[in-house]
Fold these 2 entries.
Entry 1:
Amino acid sequence: MTSQVKSGSRAAKPGNSVLGRLSAISFMTPASIFIGVFLFIPAVWTLYLGFTNYKLTGITAAHPKIVGFANFQKALHDPQFISSFKLTLLYVLFSAILGQAILGFLLAWVLSTVKPRIRSMVELIVICAWIVPGSIVTFLWVAFLNYDNGTLNRLTGQHIFWLLHDPFLSIVVFNTWRGTAFSMLLFSAAITSIPKSHLEVARVAGATKMQQLRQIVLPSARSFIFTNLLLITLWTFNDFGPFLLTGGGPGGKTELLPIFVYNKALKYLDFSYGSAIAAIMLLMNLVLALIVIRAGRKNK
Amino acid sequence: MAILKRQKTKMIQEKTAVEKGFTGLFLALCVAFFALPLVWLFIAPWDGQPNYSIKWPSWTLTNFAEISKNPYAYKSLVNSAIFSAGSGIAVILVGAPASYVLSRVKFKGRDSFLYTLLLFSSIVTGSAAMVPLYLLALRLNILDTYQGVILILTGGLIPTAIFILKDFTDSLPRSYEESAQIFGASSFRILKDIVAPIIRPGLAVIFVWSFVQAWGNFLVPFILIRDINKQPGAVMMYSFYSDGGQPVIRQVAAFSLLYAIPVMGMYFYVNKKYGFRFYGGIKG
Amino acid sequence: MAITIQRSKSVRALLGLGVVGAIIVAGVPAVSAAAVTVGSVCPKLGAASKAGTIAVVCKDGGAQNVWTDKKVYPVSIQANAVVGGKNSAQAQWLAQYVIPNFTLEEAAKGKQVDVNFISSGADDASYKSQLALDLGAKKGPDVVNIDGFWVSEFADAGYIKPLNDVVGAKAVAAWSGWKQIPATINQVMTYNNKLYGVPAGTDGRIIYFNKTLFAKAGLPTNWQPTSWADILTTAATLKTKLPDVTPFQLNAGKDMGEATAMQGFLNFIAGTGSLIYDNKTGKWLGNTKSVRDMLNFYNDVYNVKKVGNTDWQAMAGGTGRDASFSAFANGKLAMMIEGDYEWRSVINPLTGNFKMADRDTAVGFAKIPSQTAGSGVNKQNFVSYSGGSGYIVNANSPQKGTAWELVQFLNDKGPLTASMAIGGSIRISNRTDVNNVTLATDPCLKFVFTQAIPNTFFRPANSHYNAVSTLLQQATTDVVNGGMTAAAAAAKYETALAAEVGAGNISSN
């Protein structure tokens, strides 16, 4: 298996396709139809709703009107939106970049040096946290953080209402728990793809762990880090998970943008406002991606 | 392989005691962090009066007996399997050929195109898209059908699947395909007999990922399905609430375990059989 | 082949009479005796019986179908209820009692119906959006169970139409059940003076108190406050005498959601003599003395006298309400304002989520007082708020006639009485003749029905209500957990209210 991984550094050369035009088209057709019908149409439709005053019930459900940028203006003057916006950026920074990516990298790095049996056991547990359905995870974390005899309070001998007094910290830790598996798996692949001899040479030359990491591992893993950051920032930005834990509370302190949209759309059936926020989120995701891409180029 | 193993052993031997200590401590903390919240899932269902704390259970099956009385509980898991397997297979069948093309044919703006798809998927998997998705299903006449849910779920999953699979394919040497081409193999044969087997772990990862996403999805089946006999476990979870909105913990605990086991089992199986590993990373 | 039979409570008697079809539902009394003509219903009922514990007694099951009308009338009914899950008793009743008995009754009239129960067990907001999508697409079930609170929004959207318009005024008037339904209860399904469906029942809010704790604190066990000050004084006494007990729970804050409205501020606004929305002028209550007084009461409870638990009010997703239920069931909370749902469901010693073993002996009931005697709306001494759901006929139903027959059947005395017998699910029904019998043995429901409901109010039937309620919830959060004064919170509320309903639609003083 390792042989293919090594040659991973050989990227596809442009303009030298092994695919015929016809095959390329036929391979793309099913995906194009899917993307057109089940992705493009509903996405554009949703964005369009953001420019109307459509609600699912009430008078505007019967006679929606196009209102231009009114919903966007409303958002900019909505203190809850502003605070959700800031909260979401912090959530991405702390739980995705500092939490998932760094813990995932450390796990991958450390696990590459231990016995395969230990490695697969640890990986299994981390992956379990990733694949258990969200509706179950709610109960797991409510039990874990519960005030009366919750696991965390029992173990630390404390008596703390975690979700009440440290709601943001709680959801950051929660999302780190939930999503680290993906980063760990991706970085494991990155570390496996580094030729062992490179590390060996570095060690013989007396390089410290830090030096090995900086001079060999990080440069080789660059493209993995890029993919990872692109996906986890996007996923975390659009992550609805904490809703199941806190409902956005207490007092809106964990009302991330996806939760804000959910509350507007599903709770108050205000789909036009919800859709406008979704459009703003799309723009924000774009900006984040550009930042990631830029950072990727800089470190080249 | 043998050389590699020897190198690894050597590496381990060379570790200092301090390093070993740190490694052990770090892993122990990680295991505790990831495992502790999971404990409730395996303990609470067996207790006669479970609550939100971890306690030694009274080892009873009464919670499961209570679940069995719900005529839809087990059926919902079968439905979940249909939705998840259906979406997983559709994602692979539609996404793999496309990602192969996108890996091998370079065109201007390809990466931007891929990223735009990802952005759109974040819209359609959000709650704001509920009304358009419903109306789309209504027009296509796929409301209240299995295929409707599978198609809509697949639409939301495909961009990420293509994005990741393209990474896998990018890391695949072209020499294999080129030699196969010299021997006159068709593009389809190359994809099926050469590319697919090599990126099998990638397909496994995407299948598991799609399966897991579909397995946990509440909103799509909820808005598209009306016949309770077709509702999945994700929707069923919410029926174990009292009329005032409080979860009935006995039922929730037991059903959670039943609902979690298939998806964990599926991961075990795929991991054993095909391997569950990533390769790749965007080159740029 | 149609023959005349007599249905009675005794199945054996039925068998003895050589009946063609009869139904036994475990634990449910049969429909009141009536002479009916029954076709060969057995093949049809055989299918219906699969759902539950119904035994179809059929002497000659293979008998030929002799319907006077060969047509089959399909009719569907949807409710947010599922057997073995949410609202299980209602689902059981619909699937196992209503469907077979309605089929039988219709068969007796020579009409073959095929009833399909569309069951779900989601949270109410999700169920509502599901229904709105279906009704908006001109689809959906023929008969649907909706919260009375949604009627205005659904009507404004054109999803539902007044009952008279859907099935015809004559057909509506012809139902004998109306004279049993008090006008108050019809309000549940009324919007702009038009009735949209048949209310299924109602509820009411009262103060629950723990008599054991009251006795320990030297307070009377037949306690009935007559002013807000009475509540505060009693709570203060409890606080000094019983330091490890929370004296009072008054739902507050955004995280409690609509519970903060129904069990909280709506009652206290009404107690000052105003209503949150004035139907006559079409104005919402802005930064007024009523709102400030109400918020001041919250401030007194949580910050001045400190007789409540502020943490519960802020706990995420309404888990604080669970904490208060749990405390009350365990004798750690002395007084709380809740609906009758708490008594019949939450602390029910047999089926409750927070079983209170001594519920029947320890729990006392009191009406919610106005600010001072006679200060309430209509000069009332006491106030309460009510809600409830009802059954509507889908305006786009191809089977409106049959659907209306089903709605009438659901609200006839026999079926309604039967619904109360399932799983001890006695509630306040829409019918006086049923309530007189079923509520007689339940002290709490009797109290709510006879003491609270005569003083009750309903939430404004207006599609802005939801948003306004959220703003007031936020105002209580600002006071209880946000350190704001009542005046500041009320001013902030009015600014947000103006953005929501328009500055011209607000009354302030």
Note: The radius of gyration of chain B is 23 Å.
Entry 2:
Amino acid sequence: MSRIKEFNLPDLGEGLTEGEILAWLVKVGDVIELNQPIVEVETAKAAVEIPAKWAGQVRAIFHPEGTTVEVGTPIISIDTDPSAGPIEESTTDALPTPSAASLAAVEVAPAEGAVEPGLIGGPAPGGRTAVLVGYGPRTTAAKRRPRKGGVPAQASAAPVQAAPAPAAPAAPVSPAPVGNGNGQAGGLVLAKPPVRKLAKDLGVDLTTLTGSGPLGSITREDVQQAASATPAAEPLTVAAPATAAASFGADREQRIPVKGVRKLTAENMSRSAFTAPHVTEFLTVDVTRAMKALDRLRERREWRDVRVSPLLLVAKAVLLAVKRHPMVNSSWAGDEIVVKDYVNLGIAAATERGLIVPNIKDAGRLSLRELADAMTDLVQTAKAGKTSPANMSGGTLTITNVGVFGVDTGTPILPPGESAILAFGAVRELPWVHKGKVKPRLVTTLGLSFDHRIIDGELGSKFLRDIGDFLADPEAALLAWT
Amino acid sequence: MAKGDPGVTTRGRRAAPRTKRAATAGEPELVQLLTPEGERIESAIGPDGTEYRADFTDEEYRGLYRDLVLVRKLDAEATALQRQGELGLWASLLGQEAAQVGSGRALRTQDMAFPTYREHGVLYCRGIDPIMPLGLFRGVDQGGWDPNEFKFNMYTIVIGAQTLHATGYAMGVHMDGKTGTEDGEAVIAYFGDGATSQGDVNEAFVWASVFNAPLVFFCQNNQYAISEPLERQTRVPLYQRAGGFGFPGVRVDGNDVLASYAVTRHALDNARLGQGPSLIEAYTYRMGAHTTSDDPTRYRIASEVEAWQAKDPIARMKAFLTKQQIADESFFASVDEQARTESVHLRERVLAMPNPEPVTMFDHVYPNGSPELDEQRAQFSKYMESFEGSAH
């Protein structure tokens, strides 16, 4: 049995996690010598030839050229004693026959972890469970010895011995690092090493960015904004496993690597939640008049082709309220408060890749019609996954339309650098006291979170009240305020 | 292996008696006793007028050749082991065998050497089992040997730091009165061209100079400080820097094992006689990567590597031995076979290296332990024993 040996891609240079197969120098069936070069692999540090660890005959090659393979993953299997005759039947069943079949299987679905049919779960030569993927968490789990007097040993060994390989470590490797950040193409890219690391982690190509730092260097913020905007090749974390059922291990737990938009969202939300002291206030408003005003607007000929939604009025309300209370459109900069004369109005959008917050630049200067067009454009671009980094950056105040999910309100968390965010809930027909009588009216609830370092309860309340007043009677507010 | 001292006998029947001045127009000024074509030069004159000669018996010539081949093969095996995931890192000496074997064989038993992390050839010449450093690069031990037993200090990873250690050591040798006779003690410090840009190395030059330390600074100029070429490191040839510090400097063909031997032997003898330090610049080339984590194709061109390939230290020695009929094909075959056997043996022993018990990390911290450390060790042992299947 032990005559068949699998060679795992080693860490070729001090802490690397993956390598790209550049070229196979041998093929299935070749008889090779010890230390004969078998494959060229390119890592983030160097392109190197790997010499054969054993003499013998190449039995299978697990990854085609061009594949990025995680360290620890088997890349080739070698029959170390081919002269001893064919492998016994039972063994052959559990192993790939030396044919193109194994290669083809990989090529069909490389992103799904290249699971070799017939290999997973079956004991491979040498008694170890054959897995083509799975470096990291599972290895650690397997190595951890049980404590004395604890749970029986097989409990922790089970995930390894039992059949389906958890798909989590099989998440496709980001294609980004190849040719990235070397400053080779597109001239010199200025970025500090931690920023380069971040860019690599998030799959952002630095050469495509315009730096906002000193001397045009690329900052952490530039990368983060680009990461949330780039239609990255890697799908949102949860999309990776082929089937949901297959993605759960024997412990009925699934491990999803945190990266991409999810990672960015997590970082931003944690940072904001634990640095800016949030206060959230609510206001329930009768928006019946506003909805009627929208209907009248839709009927006008010049607005016929324009998409008019309640969100448009909310945006207008926010912009007008900001004019009356400019302090809410500000950001906390340590020893000073930066109050902005422009409103880059962020609209939180749920996309297939996750939450992104593109913004409308200088929205306060737009007419209602321009605002409507800008919002339509923003939403469509976001849904198509084509929001540009520029449109992701520099937001000053945000609206999140949780109403589209059918809920009433929430306590939103501020995007980092902003001081106020408004949650717009669902518009419902509810019994409401109107002119002294209970009547069915269209009612919504607004939730405003603000940064208490800058905005006190009085200012926050006035701002929210003004938004509510506008939505209760937009025409009167327009007449009174503008 | 005892080598003949320079200038003892002349091998007139083999070597065309001619003397080569180090300063030849167009060529780098270096001391050379064996050309890349395998032609023997009788003697060479250094920049300060010193005449260098090296005469060996046939047996010694063959011994040097064997050293070169074995050292290269063992080094190649270590590189392969790294590529196969069995070593974490390896710094190959490929191309620098002659500088290391020549200087290493020039050392006398009482001489002390301070290596970098690439002196596998010197280590071999000092009689240390080549497996010793591999534990360090495999991450299973500290790569330890007894520096006093072999008169070969530990590998030093910090660039240039060992030149200061060597200077202090050499000052001690001098103060202990172990210099001044023909059997005196000398010290050699190895470093590379990149290290010459370090403050440490320049400080070592100053101290060794003013204290007249019996020290040979042996710089293997392999042309690159990782990726930084020599012209970005210095405006003058490195050996000329010695003059500014007040001791002699000489450039030797580092791919010429005979010249490397002769120049080092001369410098060591000066040191042991109490005449102070000197600098040897062994002009050579790193044929491989800086370490296995490096990709030299990113910063040097193939034609440059090819030009140096033509100056290969082993090829010229082989040509010389063949031309002079000092060795024949069966000898070369036997050396190759020995190299193969030893490298396979080395591989087997590396693969069999046991993983260390975690508790051994408390060993070798203090010679006789310490109460605090003993307590930590006890606590850690107890913790390890709380796992099932623990050996203790």
Note: The longest strand of chain A covers residues 437-451.
